[in-house]
Inverse folding.
């Protein structure tokens, strides 16, 4: 005799377990999708920041290129301006050299021999010399027409001055002015002699001075 069990107990259990497994897979898939979305958002944000930084860099480079193009376009004008500036600098340098060179010494000599004027004096040096010799000074009222210079020779910053004067006091005044001047130093009075002046028959003093010059 054959028995057949037609009851559906086991099949019902399998059917009940199937929906639970499907739900788990759906949750897993949904979680993976959410994580991928979050990853994509983070990646997208990073790329946007990189793009913004690159755009800023490109903008700076574009500005630098524009400035360079502007400079290149004005190259000839800038060269002309530089040439003008260099010419001015050369002119100023020449003027400065003239102020401190032989031209300045000649101007100082003319000032020493000009009525109502006198030597160019460094006040600090003058004060120091006056402490050693309180009577050291020059005569502002000296009539420089009482003296004539006939020769001025310079060799290696050493000068020899020759001329004629009415008397020894005029020679002493000239020597004093040379000593006080900022342009001359080491003034030495060389031997001279008296002799009559041929044209006006006056007795005059021939003199010679040796001194050194600064410039």
């Amino acid at each position: 005799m054959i028995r057949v069990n037609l009851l559906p107990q086991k099949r019902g259990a399998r059917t009940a377990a199937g929906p639970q497994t499907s739900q788990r897979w759906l949750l897993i898939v949904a979680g993976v999708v959410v994580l991928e979305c979050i990853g994509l958002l983070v990646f997208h944000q990073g790329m946007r920041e990189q793009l913004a930084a690159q755009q800023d860099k490109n903008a700076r480079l574009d500005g630098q290129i524009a400035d360079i193009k502007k400079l290149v376009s004005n190259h000839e004008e800038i060269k002309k301006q530089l040439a003008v500036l260099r010419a001015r600098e050369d002119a100023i340098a020449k003027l400065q050299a003239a102020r401190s060179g032989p031209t300045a010494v000649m101007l100082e000599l003319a000032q020493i021999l000009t009525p109502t004027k006198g030597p160019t004096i460094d006040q600090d040096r003058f004060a120091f010399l006056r402490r050693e010799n309180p009577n050291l000074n020059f005569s502002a009222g000296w009539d420089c027409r009482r003296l004539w210079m006939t020769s001025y020779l310079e060799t290696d910053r050493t000068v020899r001055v020759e001329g004629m004067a009415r008397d020894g006091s005029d020679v002493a005044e000239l020597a004093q002015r040379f000593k006080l001047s900022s342009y001359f130093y080491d003034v030495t009075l060389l031997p001279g002699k008296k002799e009559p002046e041929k044209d006006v028959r006056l007795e005059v003093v021939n003199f010679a001075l040796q001194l050194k010059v600064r410039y």
Q: What stands out?
A: The beta strands are 147-155, 158-165, 184-196, 203-213. The CA atoms of residues 10 and 16 lie 10 Å apart.
